[in-house]
Structures are given as C-alpha cells and as structure tokens.
UniProtKB/TrEMBL annotation:
GO molecular function: aldehyde dehydrogenase (NAD+) activity
NAD-dependent epimerase/dehydratase domain segment(s): 4-223
Entries under InterPro entries matching the protein: Epimerase_deHydtase, NAD(P)-bd_dom_sf, NAD(P)-dependent_oxidoreduct
GO cellular component: cytoplasm
Domain of life: Bacteria
Official protein name in the record: Nucleoside-diphosphate-sugar epimerase
Pfam families reported for this sequence: Epimerase
Transmembrane annotation, as ranges: none
Length: 321
C-alpha cells in the first residue's frame, strides 16, 4: 500500500482528494491545523497530523511515495503580495525541500488555472498560454505562478506535476469558499450577474484528476482540470434549475463594476481589507475560459456536468444548515 502525504484536507478539494485516495487503496497522512476541522470520512488508513505548513514533517515522510500539496492562501482581500508569498511560496518550498530530502517520488502542486492565459469559446486557454491581465496583477495568481516556476526548475530528483484547476463546486465546502457563488442566486428574487464567464468543474473531478496525475502524470507538466465554460447568466440558470426557483435575472452594467473596482482600490489604499478591486472586477467582465483536452488525452479524465456539482454543493449546504 503506497503512502501519500496531503495538505489542505479541511477545504473543498482536500476532503474530496482524501476520499478518492482511500477509495483507491492508498494510505494517507494529512497535515491539519485541527483534527476537528476535517469533514471527510474516517478510515483506518488515514492519519491526521496537527501542525502548520512550516512544521518539520520529516519523520512522517518516511516511506511516502507521493506528496499532494493543496493548502493555500486563496483570500481575495489581502493587501500585500507578502501575505500571499508566505503561504503560497515560502511554505510550499519548505515542504518541497523536505519531500526532496525524504526522497519522495512525486510532488503534486495544486495551483490555479489563472497562472495560465485564459481564452474565449472560440479559442480556449491551454497549458501553453502565458498568463494574462488581470491575473498578471493578482497577488494570488502571481504567487502561484512564482511557486510553479521554482518547482519546475528543481524537479531533477523528486518529480513535479502541476495541477491547474478552474472554479470548483461541490461537497465539503465548509467555509463556504467557491460555493459562495451559489448563494449569489439561491433563494433570491433578483439575481444580478456580470456579463463575463468562467470555467467550472466538479471538485470531485479535480480530486480524481489528482489521483490520475499520481499514476499517469508526466514530470514537469501542467494539467488544466476543468469542464464547462459558462457565462455567469448560464451558470446561475443552472443553479435556478437545481433549486427550483425562477428569479428575475438582471445584468450588471460594466460601468458599475468599474466603479466598484475604483472604490475598492481607494479603500485598499487606506488599508481596508475588501474583495473589491479593479483587478477583481475586471475578472468578472471577461470570458475566463480554458481547455481540458490535455487532461483527457494524457490522464484519461472524464468530467461530470456542472449540474452534478451544484446538486452536491446544495445538498451539503442544506445538511449543514
């Protein structure tokens, strides 16, 4: 039974990854801040270790074949690049060097699709596309790209595989994180939507992609894990269909988002944490679309309709009240 060390298992993706690994016969050691935060299934082959990302985990890496690093700082309201670099770069490099010293075979880094260049429905973004504005100015996306570059330059002994998931929806979104977009439409009489769009994917599919990358991924490669490219209006219509509602759909004019971005930039200058910024509002106005063909061809991925992801997320939220 091969051992896998995993970080970030208390989040949406991490819990799904642990379930997939255990279902497929792996032994899992996971780093958590608090054991009580883990919402996935218990298993005799799962061992939880309490600590932070700068903890010396060397003794737990003995005999570990694969390291899956999911934990990250994903907040969109932090005010400086240093706040992202500490978790997304410094902590990752610390863990990677421990993995190298422990002779772990493969280090899988869960990054973001926004380190790659997005495209349109006519020409989707791929693993070969260079990062584009506004994400070139996103502290989060920049910190992820800087980490990718370091890992890919130092993959001579421990193999490195980069996973680039798009916007994930699904079960175990306890905060919620990306699942907040469902509450944007759920139980609302009026739904205001931006004119842009993004690539959506079931978190369970991303977890399956990580499992397949462990088995089939090539050293030094990036893999986009994504499925449906949808305008926000179409996505909210999917939410409406799942939740049996029929709200009035109202487009948000671009000038309103531009104005909100301007207000956010001013607030940030006064050290006020806010999700509002010109960068974030620009992201809502573009078609942030990506291609999944490489993951299908090389990893053998099969993707579920995003409707399934919405149903799983809504069921989870209802159970958690």
């Amino acid at each position: 039974m091969k051992k896998v060390f995993v970080t970030g298992i208390t989040g949406l993706l991490g819990a799904n990854v642990v379930n997939k690994l255990l279902e497929n016969g792996y032994s899992v050691i996971a780093l958590v801040r608090k054991k009580s935060s883990y919402l996935g299934e218990e298993n005799k082959n799962l061992r939880l270790i309490e600590g932070n990302l700068f903890y010396d985990i060397s003794k737990y890496l003995v005999g570990v074949s694969y390291f899956v690093h999911i934990a990250a700082e994903t907040s969109q309201n932090l005010l400086s690049y240093k706040e992202y670099i500490k978790t997304n770069y410094d902590a990752t490099i610390h863990l990677f060097l421990l993995a190298v010293d422990s002779r772990v075979d493969r280090f899988l880094f869960v990054s973001s699709a926004n380190t790659l260049g997005f495209g349109s429905l006519e020409k989707l973004g791929t693993e070969n596309c260079l990062q584009k504005y506004p994400f070139t100015h996103s502290f989060y996306a920049k910190s992820k790209l800087e980490t990718e570059n370091y890992l890919l330059q130092n993959n001579q002994t421990t193999e490195v595989i980069i996973l680039n998931p798009t916007f994930m929806i699904g079960k175990y979104d306890r905060k919620p994180s990306s699942g907040k977009i469902i509450f944007w439409a759920w139980k609302k009489k009026f739904v205001f939507y931006p004119k842009g769009g993004k690539s959506f994917v079931h978190a369970e599919d991303v977890a399956n992609g990580i499992l397949k990358a462990i088995e089939k991924g090539r050293n030094g490669e990036k893999y986009l894990l994504t499925n449906e490219n949808l305008k926000y209006k179409r996505f909210f219509n999917r939410v409406n269909a799942v939740t049996n509602q029929n709200p009035l759909m109202i487009p948000i004019p671009d000038f309103s988002l531009i104005f909100l971005g301007f207000i956010g930039d001013i607030l940030r200058r006064f050290k006020v944490k806010t999700n509002l910024s010109s960068i974030n509002m620009k992201a809502l106005r573009i078609d942030n679309f990506y291609d999944n063909q490489k993951s299908i061809d090389e990893l053998g991925m099969e993707y579920q309709p995003i409707k399934n992801a919405i149903e799983d997320a809504v069921c989870f939220f209802e159970e958690r009240k």
